[in-house]
Structures are given as structure tokens and as C-alpha cells.
């Protein structure tokens, strides 16, 4: 494939985009659908930090790998960019018009409303619930035989679902986790298929896939309704996010949140709050199982600080290696591995002009391994995230939580959760790879390990 300038309505002084044509007839659509983790690094190798590729002939999209370009799109000129309909429409089938999928003034009002539940002060109170949820998992592990094999990705999914539901809504929905877990998986698979396929029959057509999605979505809606109705009936304030949402609904009756909006927000937070964190923890354990020397250092840190007890809010700041492992795992395996955007009006980035309504993609999977910004980019080196080594790094060379106004509202929540879970488990258990089990990144809804992460865990 040759590097050729893509045609675009540029002025003569503007830089032309290095063009990545892909297949002469069908463009890169097949690679976008089937092998994006190979496609985007190939685009960077051929074209550099800025490229124009074609999904299909006549459907160009722009790929930006340089941290300054990422900062421009997400932060400096964020007003000129929106999430694309290819992302929003399928996502809305699952979470309606919640914080992740809403736009404009409505989004801003909801964001302001929920922000206090995610500030540092409030999070301190949630740390104990995170520890309590982790303790339940550790107790279950203790009752099983030593040196056993388990899929730690499944364990982390159940744990993060318990953490999200108990911290945000004071209800543990993980008890029915096999049903709920399967329903989430079915909806994620469906949504990600809709994101990359141009031609799919509308949801109302009773195809087997559509019916499966509707069944799974009904189950998730029921879970959410039960959470809301339970709280309304009990009338008891729990000081959590659900209280905040319900109070806003009462205050603003008439113009405020409808029942549907409330349901959308709860399902959004339950979805966004557990799936990505589960992926990040699963990758952390995979990497730790491959690097026993790092795992031993983590054990020393955790045992030294915790002495066998569960982490308290005060401990989190004293577990720097646990946090660095979590951050490094998200560098190598970012749960959100690419962010699509669309320009609203024309723009220019580093001299490269962009027309209005242009599709732009930022790719954590590539920028997080960019050799100009990371030393030994392919190596697992958590120490690069320790305070003494992190200074001077380009701000947007690392953006697992996005950035700018649409930055993940749960970023501090997730960093606290990741640090706490890794330390709480590592002080008691050694995790080793299961011979013969291949761990394969699957870039669908989030970047998950395809067949889980099967490991052997033994008590220390
Ligand atoms: C390791 C864990 C997590 C990762 C990697 C992650 C990643 C992200 C990213 C990249 C975005 C921005 C998407 C975009 O700009 O297109 C985002 C948004 C969001 N995240 Fe997270 N997230 C994590 C955990 C959480 C948690 C724990 C919660 C809630 C408890 C949460 C709730 C949300 C919500 C509601 C949004 C939409 C925010 C808005 O648009 O205002 N996330 N997340």
C-alpha cells in the first residue's frame, strides 16, 4: 500500500494529509471491523502522526496519533468536536440518553448534577465499600482449594459490578451476576457490531440477533428499575449518587429529570462504571502474572502497608506501586482503545486542514505505545508512573480516560478502585499464568481479553 496524498478541499498553503488508501476497492473497512489493533499501528508506520484513510471509497477519516493533536481535539478546541453518530446511535440503544451519550446543554446540566458524587471528598467515603466488596471476593477464594485455576477476568467483572452497584446505588446486583454479566456481554457485542457494520436491520426487525439484544436489555432495565423502586419505597437517604439523582428529579419536577432519564443515568453509570474497570484489572493481573518480579515488589508494598488488613481511605496514597501497575496496564491495554469524533465546523491541526463533519479518530492503543514519547514502549514498566519518573511527559501521550470537558467522570473513582483491589489481593495471593492459555486482546466495546485471563492463584 502506497502513501499517497488524499484528496481534500485544502487551501494551497495547507499541508496535505498523508493518505493511507488500504485496499484499492474496498478501503480499510474490513480491517476496521476485524483487525483494528493491526490497522492503526500500520497507518502510523506508513504515514506518521497524521493520516487520512478511507473506510470505503468516498468515506475518508482522519487519524491523529500525536499527543498535541489529541489535546487539540479533546481539550483546546473541544467545542468544535462531537462524538460521532456511529458511536452514539448504537450506544443509545443500550443506555438511552445518559451522561455518556447526551450532548449540549442537557449533558452539561447532568454532568454538573453528578460531579459532586465523584469529587475526592465524596470518594473517601466510598473507599470502604470498595474494600468490603473486595473482601467478599477474597472470602470466596479462601474457601476454594489452594493453587486453583480461575478466570480472573470473570472474577474482576463480578467484583467491579459489585463495587459500582454498592458504591453508587447502595445495592449489590452482583448476586445475580451470571445473568447480569451475560446480559451485559450480549448487549456489548451487539452494540459493537452495530458500531462497525454499516448495514444492519433496524432493532424492530425480529432477527435472532435483535431479539437476543432486546431480551438482554429488558433484563438490565429490570435490574435498574428494581434499584430505583427499592429506594423510592424505602425512602431512606443513603448519601449516594442515586439520592442525588432522585433529589434532582423532585426539585425540578415539571422541567426536571423524567423517570426515563433517571433510568438512563443509572444504567449508564452501572455500565461505564464496571466494564472498563474490569478490563483494566484483568490486564493488570495478566501482566503481573507474566512479571513475578513486579508482583513480588507489589506484595512487599501491600503487605508492608496493610499488614494483612483491608485498605482504608488513608492507605490509597501510600500504595504507589499498586497505582503505577494499574496505570501501566491501561497504557499497554487501554480499555477505551480509540475515541471517534466528528468536526462541527472546519478546523486545522498542525497545519493539516479538516473539513466540517469530518470523522476523526484518536487511538490510545497507538499513542500509548508511541516511540517518541515512551521509552521501551512495548515493555511493562510500572515504575514509569511513579511520581519521580512521570515529570516532563507530554500531557496527552497518555489518555486512558479521554480528556477535556468529556473526560471520564469516574477517573479518580477508577484509580482508587484499581489501586485498592490490586493491593488487597496481592498481599494474600500469588497469581501465575496457566500454561497453554493464550490471552488475546479483543477490541470490541472495550479492549477485553478475548477468552478471559486464566491463571493459577495460590495463597502467600
Ligand atoms: C479504568 C476504568 C475506566 C476507563 C478506562 C474509562 C474510560 C472513559 C473514557 C475514555 C471516557 C471518555 C469517552 C469519550 O470521550 O468519548 C469515559 C467517559 C465516562 N466514564 Fe469512564 N472509564 C473508567 C471508569 C469509569 C467509572 C468507574 C465510571 C463511573 C463510576 C465511569 C463513568 C463514565 C461516564 C459517565 C462517562 C461519560 C462522561 C461524560 O461524557 O460526561 N467511568 N470513560
Describe this structure in words.
The protein is an alpha+beta fold. Helix content is about 50%, strand content about 15%. The model is unreliable at about 1-10 (pLDDT under 50). The protein is built from 16 helices and 14 strands. It has a 7-stranded mixed β-sheet, with helices on both faces. α8 packs across α9 (about 210-235), α9 packs across α11 (about 260-290) and α12 (about 290-305) crosses α16. β3 (about 50-55) and β4 form a beta hairpin. The structure holds protoporphyrin IX containing FE. Protoporphyrin IX containing FE (HEM) binds near residues 273 and 409.
Give the helix tally.
16
Low-confidence parts: 1-12
Radius of gyration (Å): 22 Å
Bound molecules: protoporphyrin IX containing FE
Structural class, judged by helices and strands?
alpha+beta
Cα distance spanning the termini: 53 Å
> Strand share of the residues?
5-15%
Element-by-element helix/strand order: EEHHEEHEHHHEHHHHHHHEEEEHHHEEEE
In which order are the strands of the major sheet placed?
1-2-3-4-10-7-5
Total number of strands:
14
Shape from CA axes?
Answer: globular
- Overall average pLDDT: 90
Q: Level of helix content?
A: 40-55%
Major pleated sheet:
7 strands, mixed
Give me a quick take on this structure.
With 460 residues, the chain is α+β, with helices and mostly antiparallel strands. It has helices at 29-34, 36-47, 67-76, 85-95, 104-114, 120-142, 152-169, 177-196, 208-234, 241-251, 259-290, 292-306, 320-332, 364-367, 387-390, 411-426, and strands at 3-5, 18-20, 50-56, 59-64, 81-83, 148-151, 339-343, 347-349, 352-354, 359-362, 429-433, 441-443, 447-449, 454-459. Residues 83, 99-100, 111, 164, 268-269, 272-273, 276-277, 280, 330, 335-336, 339, 400-402, 406, 408-410, 413-414 line the site of protoporphyrin IX containing FE (HEM).
Amino acid at each position: 500500500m502506497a502513501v499517497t496524498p488524499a484528496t481534500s478541499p485544502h487551501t494551497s498553503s495547507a499541508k496535505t494529509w498523508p493518505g493511507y488508501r488500504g485496499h484499492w476497492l474496498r478501503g480499510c473497512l474490513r480491517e476496521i471491523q476485524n483487525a483494528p489493533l493491526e490497522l492503526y499501528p500500520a497507518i502510523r508506520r506508513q504515514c506518521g502522526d497524521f493520516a487520512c484513510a478511507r473506510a470505503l471509497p468516498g468515506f475518508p477519516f482522519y487519524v491523529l496519533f500525536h499527543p498535541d493533536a489529541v489535546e487539540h481535539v479533546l481539550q483546546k478546541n473541544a467545542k468544535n468536536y462531537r462524538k460521532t453518530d456511529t458511536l452514539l446511535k448504537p450506544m443509545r440503544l443500550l443506555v438511552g440518553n445518559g451522561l455518556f451519550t447526551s450532548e449540549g446543554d442537557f449533558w452539561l446540566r447532568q454532568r454538573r448534577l453528578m460531579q459532586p458524587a465523584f469529587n475526592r471528598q465524596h470518594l473517601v467515603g466510598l473507599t470502604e465499600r470498595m474494600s468490603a466488596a473486595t473482601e467478599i471476593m477474597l472470602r470466596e477464594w479462601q474457601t476454594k482449594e489452594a493453587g486453583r485455576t480461575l478466570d480472573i477476568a470473570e472474577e474482576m467483572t463480578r467484583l467491579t459490578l459489585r463495587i459500582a452497584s454498592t458504591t453508587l446505588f447502595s445495592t449489590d446486583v452482583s448476586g445475580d451476576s451470571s445473568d447480569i454479566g451475560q446480559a451485559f456481554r450480549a448487549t456489548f457485542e451487539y452494540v459493537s457490531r452495530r458500531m462497525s457494520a454499516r448495514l444492519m436491520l433496524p432493532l424492530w426487525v425480529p432477527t435472532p440477533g435483535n431479539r437476543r439484544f432486546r431480551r438482554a436489555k429488558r433484563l438490565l432495565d429490570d435490574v435498574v428499575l428494581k434499584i430505583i423502586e427499592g429506594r423510592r419505597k424505602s425512602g431512606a437517604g443513603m448519601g449516594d449518587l442515586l439520592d442525588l439523582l432522585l433529589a434532582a428529579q423532585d426539585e425540578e419536577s415539571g422541567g426536571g429529570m423524567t423517570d426515563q432519564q433517571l433510568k438512563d443515568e443509572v444504567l449508564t453509570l452501572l455500565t461505564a462504571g464496571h466494564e472498563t474497570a474490569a478490563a483494566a484489572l484483568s490486564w493488570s493481573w495478566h501482566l503481573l502474572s507474566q512479571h513475578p518480579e513486579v508482583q513480588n515488589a507489589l506484595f512487599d508494598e501491600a503487605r508492608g502497608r496493610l499488614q494483612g488488613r483491608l485498605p482504608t481511605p488513608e492507605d490509597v496514597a501510600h500504595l504507589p506501586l499498586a497505582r503505577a501497575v494499574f496505570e501501566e496496564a491501561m497504557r499497554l491495554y487501554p480499555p477505551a482503545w480509540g475515541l471517534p469524533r466528528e468536526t462541527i465546523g472546519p478546523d486545522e491541526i498542525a497545519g493539516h486542514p479538516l473539513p466540517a463533519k469530518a470523522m476523526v479518530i484518536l487511538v490510545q492503543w497507538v499513542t500509548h505505545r508511541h516511540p517518541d514519547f515512551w521509552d521501551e514502549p512495548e515493555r511493562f514498566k510500572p515504575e514509569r508512573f511513579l511520581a519521580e519518573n512521570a515529570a516532563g511527559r507530554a500531557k496527552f501521550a497518555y489518555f486512558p480516560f479521554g480528556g477535556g470537558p468529556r473526560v471520564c467522570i469516574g477517573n479518580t473513582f477508577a484509580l482508587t478502585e484499581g489501586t485498592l483491589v490490586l493491593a488487597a489481593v496481592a498481599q494474600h495471593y500469588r497469581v501465575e499464568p496457566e500454561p497453554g492459555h493464550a490471552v488475546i486482546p479483543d477490541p470490541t466495546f472495550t479492549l477485553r481479553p478475548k477468552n478471559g485471563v486464566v491463571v493459577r492463584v495460590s495463597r502467600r
